Amino acid sequence: FKTQEREELDEDPRRVLSGQKILSCSESGKSLSQKRAQRTAGFFFTCLECKKSFESKEHLMEHFRIHSGETHYRIHTVDRPFPCDQCDKSFIHKQSLKNHLRVHTGLRPHVCHLCGKSYIHKDNLTDHIRIHTGEKPFACDQCGKSFTHKGSLLHHMKIHTGLKPFTCRQCGRHFTHKGNLKIHIRIHSGERPFTCPQCGKSFIYHGNLVGHLKKHSGEKLYHCTQCGKSFVEARHLQKHVKTHTTERPFVCSQCGRDFLSHHSFKEHQRIHTGEKPHVCLDCGKAFTRLMYLKRHQRIHTGEKPYECPLCGKSFGRLSTLLTHKKKHCPKLTDEKLL
């Protein structure tokens, strides 16, 4: 590549978006042309060389270096000159390494002004804000269902294809998503990456650690507005609130069953209508309630969030844990076992 041409590219990055051919790779023959910023599948800037899209010009320009100058040759040499000194990952670009280091430092500079939640990457914040706005720009062209994130759409599409490309070498089980396979492998390897900083106990799943930490802190975040009693977990508060009232104002016109809350009433009606809005992205099975979907998903992930405090054995369902605990304490009621 000519030095002068490369200098011009650095000085005037707008040429990258103009569609003008600036440089070409002698090894692959690719030309370095870029289209003016365009919206494609929710993204603003699209690379015409490889069709990859980005939400900002800066990210496109960073990516463009793959197709230009010395960095283009990394496509052929697989050169990753920027290694992380805290783990074994390496990166093509220095900026990518800087972004990655936030995983280790805990720096989350991009903060949601609506709820205060913070993120490592700006793109993650952009995705998160759609939860508040209700925007769902990514629609499935087969069933019309829309999603907040592009990744969710890609996951959903596997329901239609039935593709499960990730296989466990130890037991042969197949998974739709790589992340689910990685979690599943911990069952075979015995890896427990989530460690309690207070007692050193380790867990396979992050959810198990979160539940365990509550035992140390004793923090009771869930308060009853009627009597002031506090609880460590939301489910315990929900159960307690029912003790204050016998009134069940929401009555089903089809079967006569009554409910304390409108939410429970609406969920019940789905039994009659057949509506199942909560769909598993791994196998396509649908459920009337979100809690049923979450419970079902543990079949795919292998997650067992309910741990017996007496022997350490974990279970996928609370009911299974209660049955197990009765073996230790056969005289206790379900309420006391909780």
Description:
With 338 residues, the protein is α+β, with helices and mostly antiparallel strands. Among the domains are: 77 residues, no CATH class; 55 residues, Double Stranded RNA Binding Domain (2-Layer Sandwich), CATH 3.30.160; 35 residues, no CATH class. 39% of the residues lie in helices and 12% in strands. The protein has 14 helices and 20 strands. The strands form 10 sheets. Strands 1-2 form a two-stranded antiparallel sheet. A hairpin with a 6-residue loop joins strand 11 and strand 12. It is globular. One of its GO terms (cellular component) is nucleus.
- Structural class, from helix and strand content? alpha+beta
Total of helices: 14
**Molecular shape:** globular
C-alpha Rg (nearest Å): 26 Å
**Helicity range of the residues?**
25-40%
Most strands sheet: 2 strands, antiparallel
Unreliable residue runs: 1-28, 30-43, 69-75
Q: What's the rounded overall pLDDT mean?
A: 75
Oligomer: single chain
Spatial arrangement of strands, main beta sheet: 1-2
**Overall strand count:** 20
Q: DSSP strand (E) fraction?
A: 5-15%
CA(first)-CA(last) distance: 70 Å
Protein name: C2H2-type domain-containing protein
GO cellular component, one term: nucleus
Organism: Cyprinus carpio
GO molecular function: DNA binding; DNA-binding transcription factor activity, RNA polymerase II-specific; identical protein binding; zinc ion binding
